Amino acid sequence: MKSLIHAERAIEQEIALTKARLEQLETGLAAVRTLVAGEVPSRVKLPAALLGLGKRAAKAGKKGKAGRPRNTSGLPATGSEFWFGVLGSSKKTMNDIVEGALKKLKLDDSARKVMLARATSWLYPAIKAGTIVAAGTKGDLKAYQVAGEGQK
Fold first, then answer.
1. Where do the domains of the chain lie?
2. pLDDT digits (tens, 9 = 90+) for 8-43
3. Which pLDDT score, from 0 to 100, does residue 58 have?
4. Half-sphere exposure of 52 (CA within 13 A, CB side)
5. Model's pTM, two decimal places?
6. In what order do the strands lie in the sheet with 92-93?
7. How far apart are CA 150 and CA 42, in angstroms?
8. Cβ 123 vs Cβ 83: under 8 Å
């Protein structure tokens, strides 16, 4: 008898989930129909499946990250080659690296926080990959350099 009660509850839950999914699909269909008609709805989210996006994009959309531009700071893009250029062949601390980046891009001190975050997100994976190594200290701060530079 207990197994029948469990089965009944499971079926009720499945029906509730199916109804919720149906409501989502109907909302998406209505949004697509308004787009086809040429009207642009102000705040309608289309399900990722209707837009032809994969599962990853659908999951990202749930987190609110889909469609967001990557560089929202208004600062120029800084890739790995940029940071290697700033580091050069000499030992530099994180402060020296950020200062060099600010000078190279001709930015004022208000961009320091963003540039520090970018430098950090580049530096630590580069250290882990072995392209950058810790090169002792400079004052009381850790210094870094390109692997193989000045090491004999």
1. 2-62, 80-146
2. 888 988 888 888 888 888 887 877 777 777 655 555
3. 47
4. 1
5. 0.50
6. 92-93, 141-146, 132-138
7. 59
8. yes
